[in-house]
Design brief:
Layout lengths: L6 H17 L2 H5 L13 H13 L19 H13 L8 H14 L2 H12 L5 E4 L15 E5 L7 E8 L10 E7 L10 E7 L6 E5 L10 E11 L10 H10 L5 H23 L5 H26 L10 H25 L20 H8 L10 H12 L8
Parallel strand pairs: 1-4
Antiparallel strand pairs: 2-3, 3-7, 4-5, 6-7
Length: about 400
Amino acid sequence: MDFRFGPEDEAFRAEARAWLGEHLTEEYAEAAGSGGPGSEHENTHARRAWERELGAAGWIGLGWDAEGYGNRRATLTQQVVWAEEYARARAPARYGHIGENLLAPTLLAHGTEEQKQRFLPPIARGEELWCQGYSEPGAGSDLAGVRTTAVRDTGGAGPATYRITGQKIWTSFAHEADWCFVLARTDPTARRHHGLSFLLVPMDQPGRIEVRPIRQMTGTSEFNEVFFDGAVAEAGHVVEGEGNGWRVAMGLLGFERGVSTLAQQIGFAEELGRVVRLAVASGTAADPVLRDRLVRQWAELRTMRWNALRTLGSPESGAGSDAGAPSVAKLLWGGWHQRLGELAMQVRGAAAAVGPADWSPDAPYELDALQRLFLFSRADTIYGGSDEIQRNIIAERVLGLPREPW
């Protein structure tokens, strides 16, 4: 595979780097590096404004296989360049990831022209934020078991609508989102993945939608429970029609791990560098066992990068083309990041069990960056599809092993 950057890519890199340098000023500079995993509560006002700044310049939607919605078009290598430069500039963590990288490609593949024209331009402008209504208390990894219902309401003089009733959980950004794409059961007589539909639901429905934050052991609450009590969705906002929700939902998951994983790895490299510097400064790097673990973390991170480039550079890359590639990627980075958090605590030693170095009993207790890394990364092998489910997908869809009995 030849994945080298050509002259046009380097020109694109120079443009991206110059734009970021020019615009990451004032309140955006103050928000630099904020909003990552476990810190989504940081600088919310500046980060929402930053989405609109990106949109005005056309930097949202580079990975869409289309243009004309307010986005600029870019080749795959240029998308990688942008992701890398964005991460290196320590630009604020994105609020619009779910709309830009999950919903938009799904609408381009499965949506009607009316749905594309309605929803893609506001995403590209950074004006409308989205959340994902998939998991439920009894249907997390087993997504086909969703019990949230959507009942068609044909009464009244206006257009037909659906009334949605049920509960979703672990919904990132639900407290900030303007819209939610919801997987719900429209045929109560169907079982499992049959009879499901994919609906686009406005979140601003007081009395019909309630969002409750879930407080985590990091002290933050970027995840939420969402309760739908007769929430309304237009019949024209059902993607690919009633009963085809499972196909649309699985297509969306195929877009979930793409170019953005490379930017994620740059953030991982920064965290690893912080752990290495601490090990050198504290003298713990002299321990041959710990030093071996540090080297292994570095080597595995490089392996993840080359695997991501290989996957993205494959002529068959795309949603649904390789059922195993997203699962392999998730297994790699989830376990790696969790082990990095454990290694960070080992490097810090006994001090890791207490507050930051400058903490005093008179000050509020707060986690430092490495403590937050350790605590938040405990969930890395669970959210976004647990390791067990990813191994099942690889076993059944790639290796052809027998499916687990239900």
